[in-house]
Amino acid sequence: MRIDKYTQKMQEALQGAQDLASQANHPEITNEHFLSALL
């Protein structure tokens, strides 16, 4: 996936979702991680 093609806000949301998944020791980003990152 080419993250650099997304807007800055989208990149921040993806990074936040990845951080949440990592903190929970989950190997994948789920809809819940992404939604939580957006909020």
| Classification by helices and strands | mainly alpha
Gap from first CA to last CA: 23 Å
Order of helices and strands: HH
- Quick one: how many beta strands? 0
Task: Give the tags.
39 residues
Describe this structure in words.
With 39 residues, this protein is mainly alpha-helical. The protein has one domain. Helices cover 62% and strands 0% of the residues. Helix 1 (8-23) crosses helix 2. The radius of gyration is 10 Å and the shape is globular. The termini are far apart.
In short:
Helices cover 62% and strands 0% of the residues. The protein is built from two helices and no strands.
Layout: helices, strands, pairs:
Blueprint: H1 8-23, H2 31-38
Helix pairs in contact: 1-2
